[in-house]
Amino acid sequence: MRIALLAPIQNSLYSRLVAELAAREPGIELAQIVVRTPWSWERIRGELRRDGARLVRKVTNKLVLGEAAYPVGDPETLPALAERVGLEGKNLSEVARRHGIPLLTVTDPNEPVCEQVLKAVRPDVIVFTGGGLIRKNILSIPRLGVMNCHSAILPRFRGMDVVEWTILEDALQDPGLGLTLHFMDSGVDTGPLLARYRLDTRPGDTIASVRRRLEPHMVELVMDGLRGLRDGTLTAQPQSAEDGRQYFVMHPRLVEATARRMKTRTQP
Amino acid sequence: MKRLFAKLIMNTAGRWFEESVPARELQGFLARCLEQLTQRTDLSPEARADLLAAWRAANAVDLIPNNHPLELETDPWKVNLDTARAWRASLPEDKVVIKGVVPRALGRSLVALEVANDPDTADFTARAVESLLRHVEVKRRAALTLFSPPLNPDAARLERCDLAIYLCLRARRCGDLRLLNTALKLNDWAYPAFRGRAKPDAQARYLRALAEQERAVKELLG
User: Fold this and answer.
1) What residues contact residue B1 under an 8 Å CB cut-off, 6+ apart?
2) Average pLDDT for residues B51-79, to the nearest whole number?
3) Above 90 in pLDDT, residue B1?
4) Chain A window 233-262: which residues touch B at a Cβ cutoff of 8 Å?
5) Which among A10, A109, A134, A212 has most CB atoms closer than 10 A?
6) Distance between B37 CA and the closest CA of chain A, angstroms
7) Contact A253/B20, CB-based, under 8 Å?
């Protein structure tokens, strides 16, 4: 099975882990990596408009702190998974070089040059690990679809800040926190469903701790999905538009309320 | 060292880009401005009704004492249901957002349809809310700036207050926190314009939107 990978930035640990494990996986050929450059005025303006001050925190965490943003010695984090699987290097270029995979850097993954390169690769699946909205010209390229791991249980929680919305809407039991692997379509998280992972909360959990704990499972779910598609054991199930709602970036006052709710629900 | 540097960036640059207004600042502004505006004698009947509604909502959540000096005026929000139905009938394709353009009298008409509990309009208001949420969340500060027929910036600002009032009302009725989330943002973005030298009548509408927001926050989040 031929796949391509779309990544949001060069040093995304999630993207690097998926790329590394996919490259090592028998029967899967990672034929192309496309990485989005963060240094584009349009991207900065768009993300700043959407995220405001949160973007500063996000960029600082990713570019300045990197792996230092994670608690030292916690075995359930992305850096811990990277250590377990023996991931080397600091960026996707090193993964690409190590495995001989072509890497393309783009300003926007929907741009014509990206479309041409991906069409030439003729992938069965494109794995989306972040990097903005994907338009129909890219969505229609792979034989099976563009795969995304969404950080909540679909179809109920679509859109942004869905970990927080799951907590605020008192949905920790049903459908609970978790991840959903799905193929993307032109809607927001409305494409056919492939697999789900449910995360149990623990005493003392916070929004940050559950977010951190979900991350390594994203890598595992993507890899399980790729294996399932390779082996023909996984089929996509369509979801109904009426079964879920679209959520948006959460206002700081609601984030505060969410943190309070989480504290009361997970008090030791 | 790395953590210290990151903290410094997040504190300074984060504050620079922060566009939400602290709750205490908004609540303080609401209480102070309500007090000041009710002393004025040059307000329109509509503004007095807005102030009264703001006073009631703010009092309901203990932000101000229960001794408002206003006489009861005719509430301009009591839109006739037939007028609201006619407004809906005038919408192209029965949609409230078409290519980023919204109709005039949006918030008030939706309030009228909402409070009428008319089963014929339930599906329409549900669809309208979803497209308005998407419109505001995607366009953000540029949302509700293009009207049909066109409106001047001051009138458009009032329309945004009206939508925030409607979203708070519907959030309280349906328990849908997404609506409160969007209303909070609309009111935050409007704050700089109304904090300064806004016309008292316009400020009264903003106070109503803020008071409805605070009531919804208290009822839905405790």
Assistant:
1) none
2) 77
3) no
4) 245-254, 257
5) A109
6) 27
7) yes
Structure tokens given for B31: 């209480």
Kindly state the DSSP code that residue A141 receives in the 8-state scheme: S
Q: Which of B80, B76, B79 is nearest to B49 (CA)?
A: B76
Q: In 10 A of CB B8, how many CB atoms?
A: 12
pTM metric for this prediction: 0.91
CB < 8 Å to B181, chain A: 248, 250-251, 254
Residues of B in contact with A253 (CB under 8 A): 20, 23, 184, 217, 221
Residue with tokens 């009206």: B162
Q: Shortest Cα distance from A221 to chain B (angstroms)?
A: 29
| Chain B residues in contact with A252 (beta carbon < 8 A) | 20
B3 CB-near residues (< 8 Å, 6+ apart): A65, A68
Residue A242 pLDDT > 80, yes or no?
yes
Q: Please tell me the distance from the alpha carbon of residue B182 to that of residue B188, in angstroms, as a whole number.
A: 10
Which residue has tokens 């032109």? A186
CA distance A5 to chain B (A): 27
Average pLDDT over residues A79-86: 96
Q: Where do the H-state alpha helices sit in chain A?
A: 13-24, 41-51, 53-59, 78-85, 92-99, 112-121, 136-139, 162-168, 207-231, 252-265
- Quick check: ipTM above 0.95? no
CA–CA dist B99, B93 (Å, integer): 12
Chain A residues with CB-CB distance to B2 below 8 A: 64-65, 68
Cα–Cα distance, A128 to B116 (Å, whole number): 46
According to DSSP, the residues that pair with A3 across neighbouring strands are: A30, A125
Listing DSSP states for A91-106 in one string gives SHHHHHHHHT--EEEE
A53: pLDDT strictly greater than 70 = no
